[in-house]
Amino acid sequence: MGKLIACATNTNKSSTNQDYCVTLENSTIGISGVVVADGIGSHFKSEIAAKFCSIKLKDILESLIDINELNFEKHFKDVKLALIEYAKNTDEFDFSSIDKSQSLGTTLICVIDCGETYQIAYAGNGSVWQIDGRFNKFGKNFYLPWNSINLLNPHSIEQEGKAALYRYLSVSDTQHRPTVLILSKNQFSPGEILIATTDGVFSNDAVPIGKDANNTLWIKGEETLPILYNHLSNFLSANPRDAKNEDLEFTLNQFLEELKEKLIMHDDTTIGAIISERTIDYHQIEFEKKSEPLKDNEENPNQ
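Given the sequence above, the corresponding structure tokens read:
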């Protein structure tokens, strides 16, 4: 069994979900991954931008025939130009009459497995977590930040006391150039898990910061990730080599449903996950170790 890749999205709103996500695979050049996007809530038709840009980037990456063609700066530019062209020709609205600075804006995050490395590209906010494959072997007091590192530094600035994006995909002249990271894959057990999310799960520019009565600075702990850890732990504890991408997708949807039930889903919420081969192997060995005593008991009922 190889790696597992899946994504899921949900919302607590009665209106349109402005997030979108897709998985991708290009067997010709040996890459696969996830794309997540968060349409900017204040923008006109941002849900269209999130969906269009996600699918367009997927199509571009799946059409590459040489790994040397992988160039996220070019790909993000091509996505933006295609979005503008789509907006000019669609029958859904009149492009000439919309406020370009407040229309069709979206963040865009892509994480792809390139064999020996991961390539990460993003414009906007959200998070990309590198999680140690032994994440559920740590005590709960050590969940964060020891074995989970957020690699995404949001393209946000303070504006009138709030975080405001200065880089994202849109039909305006707003800067869209992505930040690109190359992460060497852990070639040894227990591997790693890569998680990409919109800010509904986590983003550094949305972490509450304050001071206590003694004027000591504090940062609120993240509620959503320990819940995600529980779902991933349950998923990996049951014969993970037999699992399929659809099973991981089901697990991610269960996670989002729990956020909604616990009333900690405050917006559209989207997540994509890549579980490496090494992590699956590690948890398969753990599963088999736990299963061995049960098999012995079945074969030797008098013991």
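The longest strand covers residues 19-26. Try to locate this feature in the token string yourself.
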